[in-house]
Amino acid sequence: MAEAADRDMAPGADCDADAETSKGPLTIYLVKQLELAIRSFMDDALRPYGLTTFQYTALTVLQHRGGLSSAQLARRSFVRPQTMHEIVRSLEERGLIERAHAPGNRRIMEARLTPEGEELLTACASAVQTLEDRLLLDMPEKRRSAFRQGLEDGLASLTGWHHG
């Protein structure tokens, strides 16, 4: 009973009972719920490695696109610059990233993964893949690519960011 009340009062959920059964909550609400669940499970999976989801995200962004300023890293990691400053500082203190002046602009410091950062990402890969597999476990193979494509299309529509 409490769950039904929570669902009815949840942001993005339709208040009209008839609409609830035919339409359900807004897609953006479901995406946010999924994000919160993933973050919670990711934090649990990464805790043994001494990482948070935000730190892991920053490391993987650097793995794919090294040589980024903190501002660029913040945008690509979907966090505020102030938050990224703290993340970069802690990752640098742990020796997982290093920063150096950008070629041609001594005012900008660019971050790159260290070999230790690469090793930690390799160590985390199994735990993260296990979570990915769990997310998709009950989804038929045929729907997985449509699910992923729908997420990419929504992201592109809102941000102009295209995967690939």
TrEMBL record:
Coiled coil: none annotated. Pfam families: MarR_2. InterPro entries: HTH_MarR-typ, Tscrpt_reg_MarR-type_CS, WH-like_DNA-bd_sf, WH_DNA-bd_sf. Residues 24-156 form the HTH marR-type domain. Keywords: DNA-binding, Transcription, Transcription regulation. This is MarR family transcriptional regulator.
